[in-house]
Design brief:
Blueprint lengths: L1 H29 L3 H31 L12 H7 L2 H6 L5 H26 L3 H35 L6
Helix pairs in contact: 1-2, 1-5, 2-3, 3-6, 5-6
Amino acid sequence: MQENRAIEILKSAMLLEMRGKSFYRSAAAQSSNPAIKQFFEIMAEEEDYHIKILSDQYKAFRESGKFKDAAYSKATANVASAVLNDALKEKIQSAGFESAAIQAAMAMEERAIKLYAERAGETDEPEERKLYEWLSDWENGHLTILMDMDRELTEKIWNDNQFWPF
């Protein structure tokens, strides 16, 4: 039963990452601003990296019944956040496509974090736990960046439309 659960989670994780990659690629393609396009492309590349890691673990697990020992690189959400300067944030349309994409991306990242954190807590297998803790941390970095952008955009909308109650 545990083996089936591990495979099921790996497949679900790969599907989440593939959907994330597709979403970010689509958002990049639809964005007219080069800096915003670059941000979404970086996010897609990071999801692609996760797909590779998960695929490698899937193959190892199918062959041996165990997760392979792996040294995971530190989450590079800083790469995406480095692209997010004040000029970029100003160019994101407060109520436009990019703003909606940020909201949708937040929901995707939250689903991934939930899946990874739950599985890390369920498994007794150390390498599997390490994998899902690493992925959860990485996706938390993505979510933090997106939440910061969303908060700033919300404040911009409130300021622009004088929604502040004071």
